[in-house]
């Protein structure tokens, strides 16, 4: 089957900004006197940025004197912005997006990041014209890892879920996208159980993408 539309996550799917997030979380831990064991790291760093914020507030009660879930999510996104903008794209991402645009396949970005950050990154890499829609967490009732943001993005593109491929690096979020009917592609160097996705790739030069479009 050839698919008609694409919905892509941003951080970890288009931009290789993991180091920016790691550095930001480390600085946050230092600022608020948080010491994380490996067990706590495994519990905190799961799912979307909002999920991480929720986990921090649940495990470290003193943070509730300073933040709500919404404000801590925004803090994380805002403080990772500079590092994200200076991070390189995922290997082959720019070429893939450009190729899909040339094939007239519409693309939406569905992200927990902010519209200005995404727009600035797209402009920097000369692919702004390739992206038809940008959907962020505030645009939907339930943020990632719920599938709402992918559904909203596909609707904005004017295509059904069954005609749309979701690209994502979050296993939990992609599992939910797959459950509601999206074709799902996981971006990861670590082998993951196939229950969460239809295809797993390490970068966009993977030949397995050729059969989709």
Describe the model:
There is one protein chain. The protein is of the alpha/beta class and 213 residues long. The protein folds into 2 domains: 3-15 and 87-207, HAD superfamily/HAD-like (Rossmann fold); 16-84. It is 41% helix and 12% strand. The chain has 8 helices and 6 strands. It has a 6-stranded parallel β-sheet, sandwiched between helices. Helix 6 (115-124) links the parallel strand 2 (107-111) and strand 3. Helix 3 (49-59) packs across helix 4. It comes from Entamoeba histolytica. InterPro entries: HAD-like_sf, HAD-SF_hydro_IA, HAD_2, HAD_sf, PGP-like_dom2. Keywords: Hydrolase. GO terms for molecular function: phosphatase activity.
How are the SSEs placed, and which strands pair?
Layout: E1 5-8, H1 18-31, H2 38-44, H3 49-59, H4 69-85, H5 93-102, E2 107-111, H6 115-124, E3 133-136, H7 148-157, E4 164-168, H8 171-179, E5 183-187, E6 199-201
Parallel strand pairs: 1-2, 1-4, 2-3, 4-5, 5-6
Helix pairs in contact: 1-4, 3-4
Pfam families: HAD_2
Organism: Entamoeba histolytica
InterPro entries: HAD-like_sf, HAD-SF_hydro_IA, HAD_2, HAD_sf, PGP-like_dom2
């Amino acid at each position: 089957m050839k698919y008609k539309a694409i919905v892509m996550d941003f951080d970890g799917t288009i931009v290789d900004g993991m180091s920016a997030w790691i550095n930001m979380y480390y600085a946050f831990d230092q600022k608020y006197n948080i010491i994380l064991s490996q067990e706590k790291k495994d519990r905190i760093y799961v799912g979307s940025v909002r999920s991480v914020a929720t986990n921090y507030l649940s495990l470290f009660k003193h943070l509730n004197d300073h933040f709500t879930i919404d404000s801590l999510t925004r803090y994380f996104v805002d403080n990772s912005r500079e590092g994200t903008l200076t991070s390189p794209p995922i290997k082959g991402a720019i070429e893939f997006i450009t190729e899909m645009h040339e094939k007239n396949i519409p693309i939406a970005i569905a992200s927990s990041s902010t519209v200005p950050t995404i727009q600035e990154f797209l402009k920097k890499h000369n692919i702004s014209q390739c992206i038809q829609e940008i959907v962020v967490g505030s645009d939907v009732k339930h943020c990632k890892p719920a599938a709402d943001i992918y559904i909203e993005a596909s609707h904005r593109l004017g295509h059904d879920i069954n005609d749309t491929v979701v690209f994502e690096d979050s296993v939990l979020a992609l599992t939910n996208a797959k459950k509601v009917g999206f074709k799902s592609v996981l971006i990861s160097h670590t082998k993951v159980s196939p229950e969460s996705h239809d295809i797993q790739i390490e970068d966009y030069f993977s030949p397995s993408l050729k059969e989709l479009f």
